[in-house]
Amino acid sequence: MSRGIRGRGCDTGHRQIPAYLSITVQVAGMLVRCSVPFCYSCPEGGSERLHKTANIPTLPLVGVFVCLSTAVLWEQTAQQALPGRQLWAESESKLGENRKPQTVSIVQRQDADSSERVLMDMRWGLVPSWFKQDNPSKLQFNTSNCRSDTMLSKSSYKGALLKGKRCVVLADGFYEWQQQSGGKQPYFIYFPQTKDTMDKETQGDEEWKGWRLLTMAGIFDCWEPPGGGEMLYTYTIITVDASKDVSFIHHRMPAILDGDEAIRKWLDFAEVPTQEAVKLIQPTENIVFHPVSTFVNNIRNNAPECVAPVELGVKKVGTGGGLAGGSSAMVMSLSQVRAARLQEEWQ
DNA sequence: CCAGACGTTGTT
DNA sequence: GTCTGG
DNA sequence: CCAGACGTTGTT
DNA sequence: GTCTGG
């Protein structure tokens, strides 16, 4: 599947890769540790709207979320873009220890009383805990995705899975490229958005519910550099056969967890054993999509045009890119999208 | 047993 | 063609 | 995933 | 660390 999950951009229209500040918030009576998206291009840093957009989970659960919607996708990209910055808001010292409730970590807890979800950023591309070399970029095989049918028999994933290192990857959506004669047509694929949510988005402020983020099933692992240094958290996105509606685009898709119950079970490594959890990994039909410009193909392009619908067979019209508008422009583009059954028009 | 891989998608 | 960087 | 490189010696 | 191929 795609690499294609991008930052939302902040209030002022920046679309640079954001980083996070770690905070603990109370949601539905539970303490949830999360990372607040933080825009390095803004003098003040924080972005109220980005934070709301992160749509912090409301269920009191055990587990790890990876927030990709606004997350760092490529460590090296981020390191180059943000030299000298602290990228990993959740440090080893916080995650490795059990402390007071506010700082209790979910990771590797066996007991069932652990009741937090942690929202953190991880590096995409799972580095197995046994990896021996000193630099994770030396990993000579691709671990961005993990086939659901073989994940329990692969050395790179089996260990993490059996240890309960299951996570949920949050994103606005993902991209797939349809192979055609004469090129590749990218599509943006995402959860259907309710009218309720869209209306409230346009009102903004207190009523904000935001985009319904896609929730994908992932596996993570922790890796310690042999020469010492900070623990690195990495993850892979599980893939399944494409569901019927999107199979004309591509024959594979990420495993999507549709709804709080599926998410709850996937994250609850203490109560839901591996064998039960893997049953959650199925293709879903509850998904919509629209074609987008090949503008998205170039990684350096990060603007509303990446998600704006295009009409196929029509020559691209210059829009002036993402000079203004930021996240608002993006959501407004998506607002124009009819939510379902668009396949006939584009097929 | 040791040595060497450890992965996916897509394409053929 | 295949690997790396983003 | 796509885009772009794919190399060395020696010089600055 | 663990599995596969020889």
From TrEMBL:
Class of this enzyme: hydrolase
EC number assigned by the record: 3.4.-.-
Source species of the chain: Cyanistes caeruleus
Lineage, highest ranks first: Eukaryota, Metazoa, Chordata, Craniata, Vertebrata
Alphabetical GO biological process terms: protein-DNA covalent cross-linking repair; proteolysis
Molecular-function GO term, any one: single-stranded DNA binding
Source superkingdom: Eukaryota
Record flagged with keyword Cytoplasm: no
Official protein name in the record: Abasic site processing protein HMCES
Described function: Sensor of abasic sites in single-stranded DNA (ssDNA) required to preserve genome integrity by promoting error-free repair of abasic sites. Acts as an enzyme that recognizes and binds abasic sites in ssDNA at replication forks and chemically modifies the lesion by forming a covalent cross-link with DNA: forms a stable thiazolidine linkage between a ring-opened abasic site and the alpha-amino and sulfhydryl substituents of its N-terminal catalytic cysteine residue. The HMCES DNA-protein cross-link is then either reversed or degraded.
Keywords of this entry: Covalent protein-DNA linkage, DNA damage, DNA-binding, Hydrolase, Lyase, Protease
InterPro entries attached to this UniProt entry: SRAP, SRAP-like
Family membership: Belongs to the SOS response-associated peptidase family.
